[in-house]
Specification:
β1 and β2 form a beta hairpin. The protein has two domains: about 45 residues, no CATH class; about 100 residues, no CATH class. The protein has five helices and four strands; from the N terminus they run αββαααβαβ. By secondary structure, the protein is of the alpha+beta class. The chain has a four-stranded antiparallel sheet.
């Protein structure tokens, strides 16, 4: 009975070792392959020439010149990507559409007590170094201003 128990135990250890090696095998592939059971997420790290990203956005400006992003719901949607699409579409449609959207955003900003310090709204396209941004360097490396409008009667 003791020998049989030892055989089962050796078998269990062997199966465990094989499964562990199979699970870790993707770590040793060259180039790394994104697959089950380990995902290296190469879609985020491979094939990028640089870390620049361009974002269409609405920015609120306070009386001291400080800037902060306008929340998506004031752009026209609770959804971030829909708000971004709204901004991008108005920019593509030209200055008249962008100014109209800017005025609408400014009117909604004027109704929000949490935005009372804002004196104007800008619609802009900003380019950021994504890596530097998340290291605290939040200033854009390039900007294009499409429209500016005053908030309310302030």
């Amino acid at each position: 009975a003791g020998a049989r128990w030892a055989d089962r135990r050796a078998y269990a250890y062997g199966v465990t070792a094989v499964l562990l090696l199979l699970m870790l095998a993707p770590l040793f592939r060259r180039p790394p392959v994104d697959s089950f059971p380990l995902s290296t997420y190469p879609m985020f790290s491979w094939g990028r020439n640089d870390a620049r990203t361009t974002v269409e956005r609405a920015v609120g400006v306070d009386s001291r010149g400080g800037r902060r992003p306008i929340p998506p719901r004031l752009v026209g949607s609770e959804e971030v990507l829909q708000a971004k699409a709204t901004l991008a579409q108005s920019i593509r449609q030209g200055a008249r559409a962008t100014r109209a959207l800017c005025r609408g955003i400014a009117a909604r900003v004027a109704e929000q007590s949490g935005q009372a310090d804002l004196v104007s709204v800008e619609i802009r396209t900003d380019t950021f170094d994504a890596v530097a941004f998340f290291e605290g360097q939040e200033a854009p490396i390039d900007s294009k201003l499409h429209a500016t409008c005053k908030v309310g009667a302030r």
